[in-house]
C-alpha cells in the first residue's frame, strides 16, 4: 500500500515516485496515472460552469463523481459513455492554479489535480456568449438607443436541446476595508425559459421589477433547461460582465441623465468617506519608452495597445496605456498610465484622455476572495460602473476625474537592468561587461532584500558539424523570490522553449498569462517569457539562435542588496567583481581571474532551483560539482586573416566585440547575429530606462489660459490672461534640472 499514489500525488515515496518528474525519469509508482490527474481543458473562467475531462483515469460508469476544489467547494461530475470522468468547474472568487480532488464514493477523495481559474476577461471569446453590439446593451434606454437586443452562443458548448437564460448581479456588502466586507454573485431572475438551444436569442428588453432594478452591474448565464433557475456550479455559458442599462427600471428609462447624475453624486459622497488610495500607488513612468521598458512593474493595458493599432476608446489622444502589475500593498489599488504620440504622459487635468488610477486593481490581487481584491469585479464596482454614471450616462465627467485624477511621474524611479546572452556575455546592473564561459550552474543574481534568486545553467556549444566547441551558452534559467512558485525556462532537446512551474512543464496553449504564487508569468507568441515578482523585480527570457538571453530588472530599493555574476547594484562599477566572501577584484583583472570569479558563483549544493528530470541532467549537475572544473574554454579566439569567415564576420559584426567573439568561437554567423541583436536590445533598454526629470503638473491661472502639456526637463509652459485681466509673475516657465519650474507663480 505504501507504493500507491492515492492521496500522495507530488510526493517521493520509498520505492517509487508520485512526482511529475517520474514520467521522464521512469520511476513512477504503478498507479501514478490513475491517481495523479491530467485534465483537458486545464483552464476556464473563475465564474465556473465549465466541463473538463479527466484524461488519464478510467472510472466505473455507475460511479457518483464528486469534484472538490480547495477542499471547500464541491461540484457534481459524471462518467461519459467512454468511461472517462468529467468535472464541472465552480464559481470562485480568485484566479490561479486551484488544487482539486475527486471522489467516486462521496467519502474519500484519492484522485488529485489542478485547475487554472482565469480572470473573466482573459477567457477566449468562444467560451462566452456574445452580447451583439455590447455598447447598445450598456447604453440601452439612453437617447437614441432602443429596439431589440441579440445574444449569440456556440450551441455545441451545452449538450442540451433547451436552455434557460438567467440574469445575475454582483454586489459587495459589509463595511469597506473591514473584515466583514464580502463579495457575492447573486442569481436575480430568468430572462428566457426553455428556449431552443439554437445559439441565438433576440428580445425587446422591458424594465426589471423594482426589487431587481437596483442591480446595475451583472452578467448573463445560459444553462441547460433541466436545471432550476440559479442552481450553482452547473454546466454554463456566461456572457461578459457588463453595465445592465438594458434591464434598469422605469425611473432610469424616463430620465437616464437625471438618474445617472444622482448615482454619480452619491458615488462621490461615498468616495469622500473612503481612505485615499492615491497616496500609496506607484507613480507613472515619465515617458512611453520607460513605460514599455519597465516590464517588471508595468504591463500593456489591452484597452489601448500601440501594437494593436492604438484603439483607445476610453482615452482619446492616447497611443498606448500601461497598468501597474502589482496592486498597492494596503488598499489593493491599481495604477494606469497613458501616453500620446510624442511619448508624453497624458494627465486628466489636461484632457479626458488622461489615465485614471483605480481603487480596485482590475486583475485583483492575492489572496483574492474578499473585496477589494476580487479579480475584475471589485474594479467594475468602484471604477467602471461609476464611469458610466458620471461620464457615459450623464455629463458629469469632471466629478469622476476629480476622484480619479492621473498621477504624474515626479517620484518615479526607473529600474536597473542586467543581461546575459550569447556564449555567455554579462552586462551588470552598473554597466560592467565581461565574458564568462564556465560550464555549470551559477548564481546570476541573489538578493537578501526579498530572497530573490535567479540561476543560470550553461552547456557546451556545438559546431555546425556537431563537435563540441570550447565555449558554453545559457541553456536554462531558474528563479524564485521569497516562497513564491519556482519558474524555470529552458531549451528542450528540439530547441523549443520550455517553461516549468514547480517542476511541471507549463502549457501556454490556453492561457498566455498565469497568476502564480508570488509572481505573474506571461508568454508572448514569439516566445518571450516575462516573470513579474511581487517586489516589482522582473525577469525577461528569450530564446535566440539556440541560446537563452536573460534580462533582470530591479527597482531602486535593491540598491546595495544584490550579489552574483550581475554584480553589486550601486552605481559603482569598481566592486562588480565581488566574490561570495565579499572580497573584490579589480575591473581590469585578467581573463583567467574573471573565469575564477565566475566559478566562485557556482550554485551551492542544496540551493539549486533547477529541475533534474533526465538521467543526463542528474549525471551532469547533481552527481557532479556544479562548476565543471575540467572544462577549459577559449579565452581569446584566434583571428586568422586567411579564414574566409573573418571577412563575413567583419561585415556582420562591425565593431561589436561580443558578436566577433561568438562568430569565431562557434563558427556560426547566425550565433554572432543573435548576440549582436541581444547586445543592441540591452543597450536600447538601458537608454530607455534613463531617469527623466519632471517638474510636475502646472495649472492655468484663474481667469487665464496656458499653452503646453509637457512637464519634463526643458519644456516650457506659457500663460495668457483673459480679456480685461493683467498678468503678473512669469509669462513663461521652464522645467529645470532641479525638478522645479523657473519664474514666479503666474496670476491674472
Automatic annotation (TrEMBL):
<protein>
    <submittedName>
        <fullName>SUSD2 protein</fullName>
    </submittedName>
</protein>
<dbReference type="Pfam" id="PF23263">
    <property type="entry name" value="C8-3_MUC4"/>
</dbReference>
<dbReference type="InterPro" id="IPR000436">
    <property type="entry name" value="Sushi_SCR_CCP_dom"/>
</dbReference>
<dbReference type="Pfam" id="PF03782">
    <property type="entry name" value="AMOP"/>
</dbReference>
<feature type="domain" description="AMOP">
    <location>
        <begin position="256"/>
        <end position="404"/>
    </location>
</feature>
<dbReference type="InterPro" id="IPR005533">
    <property type="entry name" value="AMOP_dom"/>
</dbReference>
<dbReference type="Pfam" id="PF00094">
    <property type="entry name" value="VWD"/>
</dbReference>
<feature type="disulfide bond">
    <location>
        <begin position="721"/>
        <end position="748"/>
    </location>
</feature>
<dbReference type="InterPro" id="IPR001212">
    <property type="entry name" value="Somatomedin_B_dom"/>
</dbReference>
<dbReference type="InterPro" id="IPR035976">
    <property type="entry name" value="Sushi/SCR/CCP_sf"/>
</dbReference>
<feature type="domain" description="SMB">
    <location>
        <begin position="1"/>
        <end position="40"/>
    </location>
</feature>
<feature type="domain" description="Sushi">
    <location>
        <begin position="693"/>
        <end position="748"/>
    </location>
</feature>
<dbReference type="Pfam" id="PF00084">
    <property type="entry name" value="Sushi"/>
</dbReference>
<keyword id="KW-0768">Sushi</keyword>
<feature type="domain" description="VWFD">
    <location>
        <begin position="416"/>
        <end position="609"/>
    </location>
</feature>
<keyword id="KW-0812">Transmembrane</keyword>
<dbReference type="InterPro" id="IPR056619">
    <property type="entry name" value="C8-3_MUC4"/>
</dbReference>
<dbReference type="InterPro" id="IPR013783">
    <property type="entry name" value="Ig-like_fold"/>
</dbReference>
<keyword id="KW-0472">Membrane</keyword>
<dbReference type="InterPro" id="IPR051495">
    <property type="entry name" value="Epithelial_Barrier/Signaling"/>
</dbReference>
<dbReference type="InterPro" id="IPR001846">
    <property type="entry name" value="VWF_type-D"/>
</dbReference>
<dbReference type="Pfam" id="PF01033">
    <property type="entry name" value="Somatomedin_B"/>
</dbReference>
<dbReference type="InterPro" id="IPR014756">
    <property type="entry name" value="Ig_E-set"/>
</dbReference>
<dbReference type="InterPro" id="IPR036024">
    <property type="entry name" value="Somatomedin_B-like_dom_sf"/>
</dbReference>
<keyword id="KW-1133">Transmembrane helix</keyword>
<keyword id="KW-1015">Disulfide bond</keyword>
<dbReference type="GO" id="GO:0016020">
    <property type="term" value="C:membrane"/>
</dbReference>
Amino acid at each position: 500500500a505504501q507504493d500507491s499514489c492515492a492521496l500522495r500525488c507530488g510526493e517521493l515515496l520509498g520505492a517509487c515516485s508520485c512526482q511529475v518528474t517520474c514520467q521522464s525519469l521512469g520511476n513512477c509508482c504503478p498507479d501514478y496515472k490513475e491517481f495523479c490527474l491530467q485534465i483537458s481543458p486545464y483552464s476556464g473562467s473563475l465564474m465556473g460552469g465549465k466541463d473538463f475531462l479527466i484524461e488519464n483515469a478510467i472510472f466505473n460508469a455507475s460511479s457518483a463523481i464528486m469534484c472538490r476544489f480547495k477542499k471547500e467547494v464541491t461540484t457534481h461530475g459524471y462518467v461519459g459513455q467512454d468511461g472517462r470522468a468529467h468535472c464541472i468547474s465552480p464559481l470562485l472568487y480568485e484566479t490561479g492554479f486551484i488544487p482539486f480532488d475527486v471522489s467516486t464514493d462521496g467519502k474519500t477523495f484519492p484522485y488529485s489535480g489542478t485547475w487554472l481559474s482565469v480572470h473573466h476577461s482573459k477567457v477566449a471569446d468562444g467560451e462566452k456568449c456574445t452580447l451583439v453590439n455590447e455598447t447598445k446593451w450598456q447604453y440601452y434606454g439612453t437617447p437614441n438607443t432602443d429596439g431589440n437586443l441579440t445574444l449569440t452562443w456556440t450551441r455545441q458548448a451545452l449538450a442540451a436541446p433547451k436552455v434557460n437564460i438567467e440574469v445575475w448581479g454582483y454586489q459587495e456588502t459589509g463595511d469597506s476595508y473591514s473584515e466583514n466586507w464580502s463579495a457575492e454573485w447573486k442569481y436575480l431572475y430568468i430572462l428566457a425559459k426553455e428556449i431552443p438551444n439554437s445559439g441565438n436569442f433576440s428580445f425587446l428588453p422591458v424594465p426589471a421589477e423594482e426589487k431587481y432594478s437596483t442591480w446595475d452591474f451583472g452578467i448573463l448565464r445560459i444553462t441547460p433547461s433541466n436545471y432550476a433557475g440559479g442552481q450553482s456550479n452547473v454546466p454554463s455559458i456566461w456572457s461578459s460582465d457588463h453595465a445592465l442599462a438594458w434591464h434598469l427600471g422605469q425611473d432610469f428609462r424616463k430620465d437616464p441623465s437625471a438618474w445617472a447624475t444622482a448615482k454619480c453624486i452619491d458615488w462621490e459622497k461615498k468616495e469622500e468617506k473612503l481612505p485615499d488610495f492615491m497616496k500609496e500607488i506607484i507613480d507613472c513612468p515619465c515617458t512611453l519608452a520607460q513605460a514599455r521598458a519597465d516590464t517588471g512593474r508595468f504591463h500593456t493595458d489591452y484597452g489601448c495597445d500601440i501594437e494593436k493599432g492604438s484603439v483607445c476608446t476610453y482615452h482619446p489622444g492616447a497611443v498606448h496605456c500601461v497598468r501597474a502589475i502589482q496592486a498597492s500593498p494596503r488598499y489593493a489599488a491599481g495604477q494606469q498610465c497613458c501616453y500620446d504620440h510624442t511619448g508624453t504622459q497624458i494627465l486628466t487635468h489636461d484632457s479626458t484622455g488622461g489615465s485614471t488610477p483605480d481603487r480596485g486593481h482590475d486583475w485583483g490581487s492575492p489572496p483574492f476572495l474578499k473585496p477589494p481584491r476580487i479579480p475584475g469585479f471589485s474594479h467594475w464596482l468602484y471604477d467602471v460602473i461609476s464611469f458610466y454614471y458620471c461620464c457615459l450616462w450623464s455629463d458629469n465627467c469632471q466629478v469622476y476625474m476629480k476622484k480619479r485624477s492621473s498621477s504624474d511621474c515626479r517620484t518615479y524611479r526607473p529600474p536597473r537592468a542586467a543581461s546575459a546572452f550569447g556564449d555567455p556575455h554579462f552586462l551588470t546592473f552598473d554597466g560592467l561587461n565581461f565574458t564568462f564561459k564556465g560550464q555549470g550552474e551559477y548564481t546570476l543574481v541573489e538578493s537578501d532584500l526579498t530572497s530573490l534568486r535567479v540561476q543560470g545553467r550553461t552547456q557546451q556549444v556545438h559546431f555546425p558539424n556537431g563537435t563540441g566547441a570550447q565555449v558554453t551558452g545559457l541553456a536554462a534559467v531558474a528563479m524564485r523570490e521569497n516562497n513564491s512558485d519556482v519558474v524555470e525556462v529552458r531549451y528542450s532537446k528540439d530547441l523549443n522553449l520550455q517553461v516549468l512551474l514547480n517542476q511541471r512543464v507549463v502549457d501556454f496553449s490556453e492561457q498566455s498569462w498565469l497568476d502564480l504564487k508570488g509572481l505573474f508569468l506571461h508568454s508572448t507568441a514569439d516566445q518571450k517569457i516575462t516573470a513579474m515578482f511581487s517586489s516589482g523585480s522582473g525577469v525577461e527570457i528569450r530564446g535566440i539562435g539556440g541560446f537563452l538571453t536573460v534580462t533582470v530588472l530591479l527597482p531602486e530599493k535593491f540598491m546595495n542588496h544584490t550579489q552574483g555574476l550581475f554584480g553589486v547594484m550601486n552605481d559603482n562599477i569598481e566592486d562588480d567583481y565581488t566574490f561570495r566572501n565579499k572580497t573584490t577584484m579589480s575591473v581590469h583583472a585578467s581573463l583567467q581571474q574573471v573565469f575564477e570569479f565566475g566559478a566562485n558563483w557556482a550554485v551551492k549544493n542544496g540551493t539549486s532551483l533547477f529541475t533534474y528530470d533526465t538521467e543526463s541532467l542528474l549525471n551532469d549537475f547533481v552527481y557532479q560539482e556544479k562548476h565543471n572544473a575540467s572544462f577549459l574554454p577559449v579565452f581569446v579566439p584566434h583571428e586568422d586573416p586567411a579564414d574566409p569567415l573573418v571577412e563575413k564576420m567583419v561585415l556582420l559584426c562591425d565593431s561589436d566585440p561580443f558578436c566577433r567573439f561568438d562568430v569565431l568561437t562557434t563558427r556560426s554567423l547566425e550565433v554572432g547575429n543573435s548576440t549582436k541583436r541581444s547586445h543592441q536590445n540591452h543597450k536600447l533598454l538601458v537608454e530607455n530606462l534613463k531617469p527623466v526629470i519632471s517638474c510636475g503638473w502646472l495649472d492655468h491661472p484663474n481667469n487665464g489660459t496656458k499653452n503646453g502639456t509637457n512637464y519634463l526637463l526643458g519644456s516650457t509652459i506659457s500663460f495668457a490672461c483673459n480679456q480685461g485681466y493683467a498678468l503678473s509673475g512669469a509669462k513663461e516657465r521652464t522645467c529645470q534640472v532641479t525638478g522645479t519650474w523657473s519664474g514666479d507663480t503666474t496670476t491674472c
